[in-house]
Amino acid sequence: MHKAIDLGPIKKFLSTIDWKLLLFLVLFMDVKIAIKIVAIVLIYFLRPDFRLGLRLPFGPLKGVSRLPLFYAGVIVIALLDWVLYGLYANGNYDFALVIGLAFWLLCLLSIHQVKLSVERSDTVMLHRTLLVFFVINAAVSVLMLLKIMVVTGSMNPYLFQGDHQKYFISTGDYIHGLTFDTSGTNAMINAFGVAYFLYRKQAGMILLCMSVMLLTGSNATDLLLVICLVAIFFFRSDRDQRSLIIICLFLLILFTVKVSPQNHNYALNTFGAMLLKRNIVTERPDPYIPRITDIPDSLLTPERRRKKIATLYMDSVSYLYYLYKDSIYLHQFGVHMPVPPRKPPPITNGLEYQSRDDTTQIRLTLLQFIRDEQLDSPVNRAGTDAGKIPGKLVAFRQTAGFLDQHPWKLITGNGMGRFSSRLAFRSTALGIVGRYPSGLRYIDPDFRDLHLALYIYYFTKGPNFRSVINTPDSEYDRLLTEYGLGGTMLFLLFYAGYFIRDRKRLSYGIPLLFLMAGGFFIGYWFEQLSVVVLFEFMMLLDRKEGEERLTLQDK
After folding, report:
1. Dihedral pair phi/psi, residue 55, rounded to 5°
2. Residue 478 to residue 473: CA distance in whole angstroms
């Protein structure tokens, strides 16, 4: 008789996972806002607790706040701007305001739930929950890669130029991971994983997260993580960790040299242009030059037509010899061995292997928007420095110019959704970052003529312009322009300060702080409701462990 499989260890492992937390993370980090709302409703149904424990550093509610006061503070500033600027008279803006406030409320409600999980579960259970989350995310990412390999018929789709270079340098854009959000979101999640597992010395998980992060092809995240790993190597590591860091850096080099060299060249070109102040090469090299055999006879002179016939004849002879050369050789010795036909190598200068500049629906919409709003002048003005510096730096210049012209808006900003945010882009009803009712469209003139014009300039050009490095996305830009110095100080004191105040108790929390601080330069992460909630959970867990270590030392 066959011996029964012992499921005891598996059941024991599954019993040590916080399933409520895992389910919440999986659902809440999904890209669709409807699923995020379901996640919030479900977790509060399973764990109905609304005692947020917010405390002010002064007044009758003075005390140590259980949660960051930042979220409540920016809501207050948004409402203050709504009154000060008389925005309540515009019904379309009122609708946008409600959506923006709802996003900040979701941030507050989500950190409350992860805080409850950290408070009520032991650290072993929380670490295993995190482990399962990263494994699931990696599995989904690998499945996405396998699907691309099947579609392309290539073991390395990062070098596959067929199908008009749909994949090739853009292969990483399709590795979305568990959130089904952008590949940049997946890259940041796995960068957190590398730092987290490095301090826990789990080599297998480090390599897994590092590999998935590289697959996404996010150069900005790669750079952030490299800086972070180098700093850990020299200042906060032991011998085992240094060995793991060297392996991670070797994987990065191997990927850029062997797997996706064209992405490596693109990154060098972009960052080199920034440092050397030369024009950025925005088009792919090797433009399409048709072979004479691909040109119709009607377009050829008599002499070139004869050359085409000769070329076709030579190609046919060469191909037949290529197919039967082994049989011809063996026939001299009286051996007949048919050779199965083999497909000749692809001619990579054919149309199929060149990038296709399709006029997509979103591009048509943006072009029509330019005509409707008569934005030719602002769009062209926004693109003055295109090719010289990345669009993201152009956006920072626009911000500096705007605040210089409107110094009184330095205090509380221009108002929520009125200059630099996903909400500002969403409320255009152009379908840039999700659906929005066209009848309730709201576009502030300052946003339209600056950041929106900049975005339109790049995203109505060729596919090589449509990169994260050319978008105005940045949380720092958002805070300064829409919430002013008041919102920026709230962020520094009551969000960054909330986590930094326990820095002596942190281990992997220190590199997480660096990665998240760097990430805020390249995305509107608070509004995406994905990476930030994972960051907050991992920071709270690290702080809890630090407190437990200090308690044991005191005993």
Report:
1. -135, 145
2. 8
| Arithmetic mean of pLDDT, 494-500 | 94
Residue 515 tokens read as 């990665």
18: tokens are 């916080």
Q: What is the mean pLDDT of residues 142-150?
A: 93
196 touches 512 (CB < 8 A) = yes
> For residue 223, which of 525, 527, 521, 463 has the smallest C-alpha distance?
521
Single-letter amino acid, residue 244:
L
- The separation between the first and the last C-alpha atoms of the chain, rounded to the nearest angstrom, is 54
* DSSP H or E stretch at residue 439: none
pLDDT at residue number 379: 86
Angle between helix axes 531-554 and 19-28 (nearest 10 degrees) is 150
pTM of the model: 0.83
Helices (H), 218-259: 219-235, 239-254
8-62 pLDDT, tens digit per residue, is 666 676 778 899 999 999 999 999 999 999 999 999 999 999 999 888 887 676 7
| Backbone torsions φ then ψ of 85, nearest 5 degrees | -95, 5
pLDDT in the model for residue 371: 85
How many helices, marked H, and strands, marked E, lie in the chain?
A: 25, 0
Tokens of 281: 């090469």
